[in-house]
Amino acid sequence: MVFQGRMKGRFFLVLLLILHPGIGYGEEPSPCGDELARALEAVKKRMEALDKREEELLKEEARLKEMEKMVEERMARLEGMRKGLEELLARIRKAREEGMAGLAKIYGNMPPEEAAARLEKMDEGLAIALIDNMSPRIAGRILALVEPAKAARLTQRMGKRYLSGRSQ
């Protein structure tokens, strides 16, 4: 678009030179020639201004393209970091689940009396996590031997959690 505008301006300049060939060659200007000379000078100044503006726009376009490239590179790096963090978080969750499942298996293989005695003394959150990772049959045997008030609290907390849709 800018190129077409410059071409029109240059065409106009050439047309003026063709219509009045004496302009710019030292001929004595006529009154009509003075007007034409002023018009020609105005066109020349306008063309210079347009050329300068086009140069500025080209520089700005180049700067914006460079910034766009930098933003795209940052976005790609951030996306890679996000994927890496998601993978790490998945591994941590899996390790945590496997660790809790292993611990629940240990408690499930204990005699129910010993497992119940230990569950009574541990943090209720941990006790619930262990029970959640046991088969219902083993968890029931152990909970039957836990002090009734604590067993009721554990069961109540598990029930609330299940009703609210939280898994842990």
Could you characterize what this model shows?
The protein is mainly α. The protein has two domains: 1-89; 110-163, no CATH class. It is 85% helix and 0% strand. The protein is built from six helices and no strands. It has helices spanning 2-19, 31-109, 112-121, 124-132, 136-145, 148-164. α2 packs across α4. The chain is rod-shaped and about 120 Å long. The two termini are 63 Å apart. 9% of the residues are buried.
Question: Main attributes?
Answer:
mainly alpha; rod-shaped
Largest sheet: none
The low-confidence parts are none
Helix and strand pattern? HHHHHH
Overall mean pLDDT stands at: 85
Any idea what the radius of gyration is?
Answer: 42 Å
- Give the overall shape: rod-shaped
Structural class given helices, strands, pairing?
Answer: mainly alpha
Portion in helices: over 70%
Termini distance?
63 Å
- The percentage of residues in β strands lies in under 5%
How many domains would you count in the coordinates?
2
Question: How many strand units?
Answer: 0
Count of runs of 4 or more consecutive helical residues: 6
Topology:
Layout: H1 2-19, H2 31-109, H3 112-121, H4 124-132, H5 136-145, H6 148-164
Helix pairs in contact: 1-2, 2-4, 3-5, 4-6
Compact summary:
Helix content is 85%, strand content 0%. With 168 residues, the chain is an all-alpha fold.
